[in-house]
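WARN  no MSA supplied for this record, continuing single-sequence
INFO  ligand: flavin-adenine dinucleotide
INFO  echoing inputs
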Amino acid sequence: MAEFDVDLFVIGAGSGGVRAARVAAGHGAKVAIAEEYRVGGTCVIRGCVPKKLLVYGAHFAEDLADARRFGWKVPDCEFDWKTLRDNVLSEVTRISGIYGETLENNKVEVIHERATVAGPHEVKLASGRTVTAKYILVATGATPAIPDIPGKELGITSNEAFNLEAIPKRIVIAGAGYIANEFAGIFHEFGARVTLVNRTNVILRGYDEQIRDRLLQISSGKGINFKFDAEIERIEKQEDGSLLVYIADDDPIACDAVMFATGRQPLTNLGLENAGVELNDRGAIKVDDDNRSTCESIYAVGDVTDRIQLTPVAIREGQAFSDTVFGNKPHRVDYDNVPSAVFSHPPMAGVGLTEGKAREKYGAIKVFTSDFRAMKNVLAGRNERALYKMIVHPETDVVLGLHMIGPDAPEILQAAAVAVKAGLTKQAFDDTVALHPSMAEELVLMR
Ligand code: FAD
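INFO  complex generated
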């Protein structure tokens, strides 16, 4: 009889867990995966996928207005939130189904229950059943962190934003990270009056300063309100059902909804102490370069380890774990030059070192910029300038970073990130003939 019920028990069927389970099963391991909510995890159910679909839906507000300048007779259009919401939710269900099928096709046992760690080789399910495993992989992700203030229960998070009954007329968004800025754009384009309230005086900490300043300038110009150095003290419900948001040393803000986008906390309340799995000072599972926790038989990947909280990173970690432990193909995730985007209006994207970080590391780096108005925006009469920045090593000419804001920036950046990852020089960009007319050609025309 086998020593354990399964070779691998994965807790959490999100980006990292599903990849790890499928790949381990492909390598011949006997695998079970537990999911307490819906297969697909944050990205598919209430993150990247529905968010991006809402961004597409929201951008029609600008496209329909611009279309008139391109000769289209656009009648007064009405936006119907429930149509978009329900279409997005059914797309989410479709994709979640595909994830489930992939697991089943790979003979992974999918257990639709909450699971906790009972010991180094033991998982306890909500039904009371216990499963023993040679290895346990914790891929439980993260959950919105909500400040502990009076009235916090009156607010929502991104989790609930996809299921709203109606678009609020006025919304206060707490936070200034990518989720806050993306939803500020979404709600604004759908006609809400948006006020973003942030503790510090910057948005999108960690992104290139000039690029995020450009987003701030464009977003403010569009009518999104920013309140900086402001902390929400409490939220109160009014008799008419609206909310009052109290901010220290300032007038309260009247609104119809408050959304907390104040960071995401790794989900670790699952009995990890029963197996000696330690957390780091940010409350994330401590892992080594091979995703192994402080318990020899327990590994962790994805947001629960809080390395880079992005889907493609969680997927790579899941792949590396299963190839290493079950596939006899050991490899590690390379965290250098991971591209990322903010799906604002217009979107931002970047890869590699920002100007600030490059200066800290190399001193007098070279910076090339292209500050231009996309052809489409010129004809549309849209006064919105794109900005591309290239950060170059002072001696080797290697491109250290690329940062951009403008239409389709994430699509353009993904291709350019290959060049940055490959360590190409500025000269290699210069040697490439421009593809004209395009916005991306600015990348090879920066002088
Ligand atoms: P998750 O995908 O969160 O999966 C964890 C799963 O574990 C969940 O399904 C959860 O229900 C389950 N679970 C938790 N505890 C238990 C338990 N005890 N028992 C059983 N199951 C459990 N990333 C991008 O790359 N691009 C984007 O554009 C992007 N947009 C985002 C937008 C929003 C609004 C949010 C919130 C996130 C976004 N992300 C984006 C981040 C991305 O979703 C995460 O980085 C990614 O989902 C992490 O994958 P994971 O496998 O670590 O965890």
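The longest strand covers residues 130-138.
INFO  checksum written, moving to next record
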